[in-house]
UniProtKB/TrEMBL annotation:
The species this protein was found in: Cognatilysobacter lacus
PANTHER family named in the record: FAD ASSEMBLY FACTOR SDHE (PTHR39585:SF1)
Matches recorded under InterPro entries: SDH, SDH_sf, SdhE_FAD_assembly_factor
Keywords: Chaperone, Cytoplasm
Protein name, as recorded: FAD assembly factor SdhE
The keyword Iron-sulfur is annotated on this UniProt entry: no
Amino acid sequence: MRELDQLLERWLERCWQESSDADKDVFRRLLAAEDDKLWRAFLGYEPLPDADTQRLVERIAAVPH
């Protein structure tokens, strides 16, 4: 899904370098989620069951365009 890719790429480009190792691990876990579940989480329809990945989704969604 291109829109999802754009969100994740923007975070990688702007935030990866200064992210903690813990945040990088959470991001890797996030990538293991199914695209449709991620997209629903980004749209706010259905939060992810893991609180850490959900918080990262919210942070990624807040990265300015």
